[in-house]
Specification:
single chain, 794 residues, alpha/beta, D-Maltodextrin-Binding Protein, domain 2, eleven-stranded mixed β-sheet, elongated
């Protein structure tokens, strides 16, 4: 009450002064008072004050009383909302409130602000997402004055060119650039859209468990292992690192710009959109400074408030905001932001174009800034700390939030769309599978036939080598199957010749987000999607649990554990031993995310292999069958081999004896193998009906039910994040899924076979000791560089 008394006293004094000035000239009565509250402070509030003064010059019939904060109180933007809430409930408070758009649902539900939909407000000049953020249940309740989101800040003294994608960001991280990323739910939200996810469905049901969020968390979980990536739930210490020049990049809110500039200097702080992910652009949350009218305001005050809104969002006034206040993004899209004059604002505006409006559901307010925000933050904390699996953390939180608001969690789409209206026909499927995969495929085909009774699947098996050549010849003649099941390594040569269909505009985003990020990358070529990933394959380190108690985690462990009765079987060809290059710092990524070789690291790895070759406790060979036989016979306790051997090894050793462990790390970092996918590819020769039937079957094969069956019956490693992989029932598969997160998708390069052949011959020469290893390594690195340059030119 005291606060309101003082407010009214100030208002009366202001009106008296205005009246004294007016009576001597025209004898007008008291001007209409318009009380405005905002949470703008300092120079920001001063900008508003100037605009208000200009408005009153134009309209002397009104006097604006601006309270940058509720008088005689020290509150932040949340406190301002609470103050308005308490005053408006008893018919008091300001006529116009400038506050967070995320308050709108609560204020509407309490009847405290007026609907503006029937006021003929032209919203065409505003960013559509800002209008969405200022609306509730299809009605407009606020007019956006300025916008807020998250951006990528960078230190211009440390960065030449900010990265446009997460892949390019990691390349710079490998080069030594440091980045600080807050991991509270609100500020880390931007990565969910980058991996194809979203927050709510149209009914307000949380749908974070559909795959995209889990992929984003997995990316963060892997990123935290890099010494140049700094994560933390509290953004303040991370911002301090940026202010001190300790990190090159910082993911922060647009409102932090002033403080960052004060610390580093205006010319040092750069702003860029957050890096895009494998599925989409980064999607940070977008909020508006929404201008809302108190439900208790009189018709006259309402009309003045509407006129003031129109004035503040006009092109001219928005330009003044732009010129004076770089951290306030204009809501009016007709205001031109010249990147030469306002480079920082240009970066911020660019980010708003892909930002996600904070959903105006009551549960969204709870989730993003209320009682459930802590539990939302805990999803990141638990997943990144490894307390629970990423999938479990996401699922538990989604179920809990939905239950709180009376929703049942919607299960992820199985992948199968509806059978086409004319869905009758025979789908020819060519594959290279063997038993028990063939039996599983037959069962999947039968299950699909039950769903689409008019569609019959006819599988035909060939060896892998025969299938690739046979398919090329058939399709080149205008023939071939409707669906091809083969390695993602086939995508580049087939796509380059136009022998498989581009699916980029065919696969729905809600389906695509369900697949792991590495699996998505494996089936892309030149930025386009050419297949659905059914499973993934890579090299892992198998071990016999009867012979190994504490599995090796490092290269030193592997050497120390090698024993005549506990030998180590390792491949010596380039592809299957690529992980050793990364362990010794010889394998990296270029700025297009293609693997590159680093001379010193390559030489160190080959020297390690030569030493191991001279150690009788190691079995080295470029023949996987030789290594596999030694492992099955119990001669070797360890075997670095493809995961495609998993079913066979489990059958030979027994599931209780066979285990896997991540490939050993070395002085250069974590051992990272190449990763490929078993891809489902479509024949471009198929007519529209056949192509649609084949696509539906491919989606069904890549769905949860089919991938679960292939995991259970054939030990395939699923790519669909919604497959339930019980670590008790499937301990090896669960471990392999974690290992797959750090693997490097094998580059889809048409001429990769030529390079691999050269690399294998150089490896053989080095290990034979017949040539100078330094000269051979130089030849290999130069060949890799030329190969990568040729790819990038294309």
């Amino acid at each position: 009450m005291y606060k309101r008394f003082f407010e009214m006293l100030v208002l009366l004094l202001a009106l008296s002064l205005v009246a004294c000035g007016a009576s001597s000239s025209e004898g007008r009565g008291l001007p209409e008072p318009l009380l405005v509250w905002s949470w703008w402070e300092g120079e920001e509030a001063a900008v508003l004050e100037e605009l208000f003064k200009q408005f009153m010059v134009i309209y002397p019939e009104v006097v604006i009383i601006h309270s940058p904060k509720p008088l005689f109180e020290t509150v932040d933007q949340e406190g301002l909302g609470e103050a308005f809430f308490s005053d408006a409930q008893i018919g008091l408070g300001p006529d116009l409130l400038i506050g967070r758009s995320i308050w709108i649902p609560t204020l509407v539900e309490q009847g405290l602000i007026k609907a503006l939909s029937d006021r003929n407000i032209d919203t065409s000049a505003y960013l559509s997402t800002s209008v969405e953020a200022s609306s509730y249940q299809g009605k407009l309740y606020g007019v956006p004055l300025s916008l807020h989101t998250s951006v990528l800040y960078y230190n211009k003294n440390l960065v030449d060119e900010p990265p446009e994608t997460l892949d390019l960001l990691f390349f710079q991280v490998f080069e030594g650039k440091k980045i600080a990323i807050p991991t509270n739910f609100y500020m880390a939200f931007w990565g969910i859209q980058a991996f194809g996810g979203r927050l709510f469905d149209p009914e307000g049901r949380l749908v974070l468990d559909q795959g995209g969020f889990a992929n984003w968390l997995s990316w963060l979980k892997n990123a935290q292992n890099e010494p140049n990536v700094i994560l933390g739930a509290n953004p303040d210490p991370l911002a301090d690192l940026f202010k001190q020049g300790e990190v090159a990049y910082y993911v922060g809110l647009t409102g932090e710009l002033r403080g960052l500039r004060a610390a580093l200097g205006e010319d040092v702080v750069g702003v860029a959109p957050l890096p895009a992910g494998p599925a989409d652009s980064a999607g940070p949350l977008l909020e508006a400074d929404a201008m809302m009218i108190n439900a208790a305001s009189s018709p006259t005050q309402t009309e003045w408030a509407l006129r003031l809104m129109e004035f503040l969002t006009s092109n001219e006034q928005q330009r003044k905001l732009l010129a004076r206040q770089a951290s306030r993004i204009p809501a009016n899209t007709r205001v031109t932001v010249d990147p030469r004059v306002y480079p920082v604002m240009s970066g911020m505006v660019a980010q708003t174009r892909t930002a996600v409006p904070a959903p105006n559901f009551p549960q969204a307010l709870d989730l993003l800034s209320g009682r459930n925000s802590r539990s939302a933050d805990e999803v990141y904390v638990q997943a990144l700390a490894g307390v629970v699996s990423v999938k479990t953390a996401v699922k538990q939180f989604t179920d809990q939030m939905n239950a709180n608001y009376g929703f049942e969690t919607v299960e992820a789409a199985s992948g199968l769309g509806q059978c086409p209206a004319d869905g009758e026909g025979i789908v020819q499927v060519w594959h290279h599978w063997k038993e028990p995969e063939i039996a599983a495929l037959d069962e999947i085909a039968d299950n699909f036939n039950n769903l689409c009774p008019g569609v019959f699947i006819v599988p035909t098996a060939s060896s892998s080598e025969e299938l690739f050549d046979r398919y090329q010849d058939a399709v080149a003649k205008g023939q071939g199957p409707d669906l091809l099941i083969g390695s993602s390594e086939w995508i580049a040569p087939l796509a380059a010749k136009g022998l498989i269909s581009n699916l980029s505009r065919t696969i729905e985003p809600d389906l695509w987000q369900q697949y792991t990020a590495n699996a998505q990358a494996a089936v892309r070529f030149n930025g386009n999607l050419y297949g659905l990933p059914e499973s993934v394959q890579m090299v892992t380190l198998y071990y016999n649990q009867d012979l190994v108690t504490d599995p090796a985690r490092t290269m030193d462990d592997l050497v120390s554990q090698a024993h005549p009765e506990r030998k180590v079987a390792l491949p010596t060809d380039y592809y299957h031993s690529f992980w050793g290059l990364t362990s010794f710092g010889g394998g990296g990524l270029d700025d297009d995310y293609n693997p590159v070789l680093i001379r010193d690291g390559v030489l160190a790895w080959l020297e390690w292999l030569r030493a191991a070759q001279g150690n009788p406790d190691f079995i080295l060979s470029n023949d996987p069958a030789t290594l596999q036989a030694a492992f099955i016979a119990g001669e070797a306790a360890y075997f670095a081999g493809e995961t495609s051997y998993l079913y066979e090894l489990q059958a030979a050793l027994g599931k209780e004896r066979l285990r896997v462990v991540p490939l050993p790390s070395g002085p250069g970092g974590v051992g990272k193998p190449f990763l490929t996918a078993e891809a489902l590819m479509l024949n471009p020769n198929s007519d529209e009906t056949q192509a649609q039937l084949a696509l539906e079957f491919a989606k069904y094969m890549a769905g949860v039910e089919s991938q679960s069956l292939l995991m259970e019956q054939a030990s395939h490693i699923p790519t669909n994040t919604n497959v339930n992989v019980d670590p008790v029932a499937y301990p090896v598969i669960a471990d392999l899924l974690e290992q797959a997160e750090v693997a490097i998708p094998a580059p889809n390069i048409p001429e990769v076979d030529k390079f691999l052949s050269l690399a294998d011959s150089i490896y053989a020469d080095v290990l034979s000791g017949t040539s100078d290893p330094v000269e051979l390594v130089n030849t290999l690195v130069d060949a890799a560089t030329k190969s990568t340059e040729a790819v990038n030119e294309n």
